[in-house]
Each structure stands twice: as C-alpha cells, then as structure tokens.
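Write out the 3D structure for:
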Amino acid sequence: MMYWVYKLLCSCANHFPAAVNRRFAVLLGLGTYLVNKRNRKNVCSNLGKILPAGTQPGVIKSKARQVFINFYRYLFEYFSYRDTDPEKATQSITSEGKEIFDGLAQKKQPFITVSAHLGNWETGAVFMDTNYQRVNLIIQPHQDSKLNELFINCRKCGHTKLITLGMDIRKAFKAVKNGEILVTVGDWGIGDDSGLEVLFFGQSARFPTGPAILAIKTGAPLIPGFTLRNAAGNFTVHIEQPINYNRQAPEAGQVAEITQKFAACLEKYVKQYPEQWLIFKPVWK
C-alpha cells in the first residue's frame, strides 16, 4: 500500500510544477495529521518536550501540523531530484561553514558528516554531491523491497555512491581508508532501546551510536551538518566544527562523549526549527 502512495507522490513530483506540489504538501500534511492519530500523538508529545515550558496546547498542535506539511514538502522535493540536474538543484542552497569541508577536501582528507531528519537532509546530500568528489551516502533500507528500490532510484543522481546499512557498512570503512567522504544521519533509531542514553532537552533519550563508532574506528573527523528550510523556500546548509573528544579514553567513553556532543548540537537546531524535525516516533519514553 505504502509503495503505491509513494509511487503516486513521485509521479506528481515529476509532472507538476513545484508550486502545485507545495499546495499538495499542505493538503496531504493536514489530512495525515487528522487521520493518523498515533503519529499525531507522538509528534505532539515530542514537541511538548522541545518547546518552552508552558507552551499552550494550541501552539503545539499548530507546530505539529507544520511537521506533517514539511514531511510532504521533503518528499516532493526528494522525488523531484531524480530528474533534476544536481547543479540546478543547488542554486537554491546557501551554506554557513563550508570552509570547514573545503579545507579537508583540499587536503584530500577523509571526513564524516553527520546530519539528522531535520529540514531536508536529502538536499544536503545533493549539496555534497555537487561540491565534492568521492562522496558516499549511508542509507537505511526500507523493509518493503519495492519501496526500497523506489527510494534508491531517486538517490541515483549525481556521482554519490550508496552504502546500505548492514553488511555493506564495511564499504564505509574502505571508503574512508581510500580518502573518501561519508554522509550519514545521526538520529536513525532515536528512542530505540538499543541506543545510548544521553541528555537531550534536559531529559534522557536514547541516541544511536553508529556515527560515533565510525569516527572512532576510522579516525576521520565527525562533522555535524544540517540543511534547514528558509522562509523563502530555499535552504541553508549549516556546518559545525568537527566534534572533539578524548581519544585516550576507553572506547565506551569516547562513544558516549561523541554521542552526547552530537545530541547537544542537534538540540540547538531543533530548538530553533522544531517544525522541521521530521521524527514521528516517541523520542522520550
């Protein structure tokens, strides 16, 4: 069922003007907010922890509706990239801190950039593909094979190589060894029991440790970067300094330090753009 829904959205993304798809995103977002009670409850619960104490329920619901709308905006943009020249796609993207990436790329030094489901992370991947060579995108496979194929086909733009989480992750270590760039997200599986407990918005939340382990095992700098949607409909890629950590500490301590620092970095941006954090599962339990 979900495959055909996404297939229809993909068709719309490539047959209608962007302005029309933006209107579709609003209608679909509001409709999904109304009918999907579980996700609506989860988003409102998360926003209740993110927004300032005392925020009125009406404001929380308004922000939650915007989360659903932004999710469909992301989908339409993502599906449209398949038939869009990457250089043309990046015309709507500005950046802050790009000199950090540029300095490492000029030295041919491998690095890992870690993002989140914030704004449009796929737009960030297009930005990386257009500006840098030898880029590898680590992706989470969908359980539905047809849906997985649909999303992978949309990602096959530009020159970026895809690495699927699982057995393929060995390719990530090989890529860094060869001086290449890794792009991943650091909030896959957030809230799952398998994650590591860190402080997030003043409360304990479980974050995945994959990015930290990659950084420790490869020795490559781990650099947070987030692609945020602006009011004008364009994007800004915000690039942070590499995460510093005590490399002399036991590995478990290094993982904990890196994961906590990434959580703190993500918190800063989610606090500014709560309606752009597209997480539909409960983060705090």
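The chain has a mean pLDDT of 91.
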